[in-house]
Description:
By secondary structure, the chain is α/β, with parallel strands linked by helices.
Amino acid sequence: MKSGVPPMYESSFHDSLAGNRRPHFRSGGKTFRIGLFLVGMLSSLLLASSALGATATVGLGSAAPFSVLGGSTVTNTGATTMFGDLGLYPGTSVTGEPHVLGQTYVNDQVAIEAKSSLTTAYNEAASRPTNGSAGTDLAGQAFSPGVYDASSSLLLSSGSVTLNAEGDPDAVFIFKVGSTLITGSNTTVSLINGAQACNVFWQVGSSATLGTGTHFVGTIMAAESITANTGATIHGRLLAQTAAVTLEDNTITTSTCASSSSGSGGGTETTTPEETAAIEKAETTTTTGAGTSTNSGEAVTTAGAGALVSSTGVSTTTPSSPSASKTTARRHKRHRARKAAKPHSPARPALPHRRGTFTG
């Protein structure tokens, strides 16, 4: 009886019938296994290609802990608060007494090393190949992760610009600006779908100016100067290589990714979006003697000289003795500011609520 099996498999077919087993074609099985192997290899190559195509973060090195780093001077007016360090080199003049929750380094070895790291990071970002043009005005635009180029000036004239991470928390956005970066009053850089401020970089060929009330996101690395006008909030860093950094009633929350050894990108931010939003809205006030200054302009009752007053109405007096340790005082200031920024637990369980997306 003819089996209908091709002659090359007929022996295997009859052997299987004799042993009351289902036919097994060795050659066919081998082909199937090779097919599975090739499919697996193709999948691996596709994943590797995708990973290689992702934009790498910019390593800030020893400049990462700084909220502000200036070249010639750092000048402040009003109640500016920065959550990271303040540095200046080669200049020596810091005026206006900004509220620094980190450390201050002026014309010393730490500032020199930070400035060197900034120069390296600036040059590295400037050399990146681009994925497309940023245009001349960011208003109303939305960007996916990548490197974008503006050959001359770049403006955010009104409204907002959106950075969309598309679900990737490690997504990196780099904007290379040929000359100036300028934002209009009350404009916003918005982050959506997992985008993080620690992975946003602005490499500016000359100077950057942030308009009144701007909500800005990312690390500005300017070749010359940076100016933050009244009430501008920055979730990132203001790093100027050669010229001045000018501040006025600003809040600067240094953006740091926890999984990066250099603190410059890649991972989850140590400051959550909810905490950052609270920090930016907090009416944190410092006092000098009996006088009071506040970002909101509302009257605040102080607890005496050297007191820190928050929007919660709680005031704590810092040590006023000349012999008090500067390190201890800074630690106390950092602790109080972060405590003030965090929402207080309600007396009874709160109803569930949706988390919002931080928008600068």
